[in-house]
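Colleagues,

Please find the record for the four-part complex below.
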Amino acid sequence: MPIIGQPQPERADAARNRQKIIEVAARMVADGCVGRLSLDEVAREACVGVGTVYRRFGDRAGLVLALIDDRERRFQEDFLRGLPPVGPGAPPAERIRAFLHALIDRVVEQMDLFLLLGPPTAQLSGAYRAHHTHLAGLLAQVRPEGANFLADALLAPINAHLLQYQRDERGMSIEEIKAGFDALTQTIRT
Amino acid sequence: MPIIGQPQPERADAARNRQKIIEVAARMVADGCVGRLSLDEVAREACVGVGTVYRRFGDRAGLVLALIDDRERRFQEDFLRGLPPVGPGAPPAERIRAFLHALIDRVVEQMDLFLLLGPPTAQLSGAYRAHHTHLAGLLAQVRPEGANFLADALLAPINAHLLQYQRDERGMSIEEIKAGFDALTQTIRT
DNA sequence: CCTCGAATCGGAAATTTCTCCATTTATGGC
DNA sequence: GCCATAAATGGAGAAATTTCCGATTCGAGG
């Protein structure tokens, strides 16, 4: 698991299988068969035992996370070293706004995968920390006190379930939701 | 499901079984065996077929929701018709503050059950609407524009997973979390 | 090229959630 | 009381997730 460095170089066949599994799963998702993404079927389709899938990804959420990981990496690259206003260079207030908008777009884009993820346990431990660290850092430049909590409070409403609910059942557009965040951060910036 | 009136008066044996199932499940939860709450075992322990559990509660989340329901009812009673500052009578700003604090306490109190609930799908459809309606109404009295979105944004961070993370892994006390909400609503009240 | 240990593999089996339906039971009207 | 019938029952079993472990394969070192 390449969480930090490379704890253990993966054996060649293992890496090949990981790749094959990801490809199969990605194709099934792309085919619209989301929700019927059974690990059994993924394994069969990839000509691999179920045990292999579990050895590589830990559990269902682990596999979904791997599917999401690609874009997550790009996203983090964007706000850490990319161009303004998301990347460094713009004033903090603008970066905050841009970051939140980008995060919303990102979740909307892969909504079905995020919905598959189930309980936020895995979600919280992974990318969440990175997002929180980044956002809290930006917030601290505008209003030092309580930046930590504020980051949590701003990130919490950006989750697939709530966004889907707001869009599908309350009829809000993504633009309206973004505007809501703008208004919220505006008052904080005070 | 006594959501509104009584859509269908439940047959006597059915009601008896529902009660028995709830009691057994509540006892298992109280015994600390949370997480191993399998419907199979609940059924066996309650001397009832699995089918009966599913007929009564729909699914796993439904049973957990039923365990939570008692307090939820009391909670709603409190903020709808109870004493100030949570109930009617206090100025809106105070009621908002009191409501958020009370909701946090409520989630913390039954944290293990909320964690069992899994994906927020069921959660969103049930009590969430009531909380949202109430909070949005109060917010509208203070700042009419965007009260709807604001209510979502304030409710989203009050969920078991985030609260547990903040408390256990970030070392925040419940008091600090409440203070965070106070600061947040203070700026909004502007 | 061979050997050997560790990593990996595959798939059978355990666990859980949920569905289905033939059978039993409660209850209102006669 | 008795009957018709709608509701409820229970448990077998489908489907999916996850664990386990003996057999196999990789690859580093000699």
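Chain B has ten helices and no strands.

Comments are welcome before we finalize the supplementary table.
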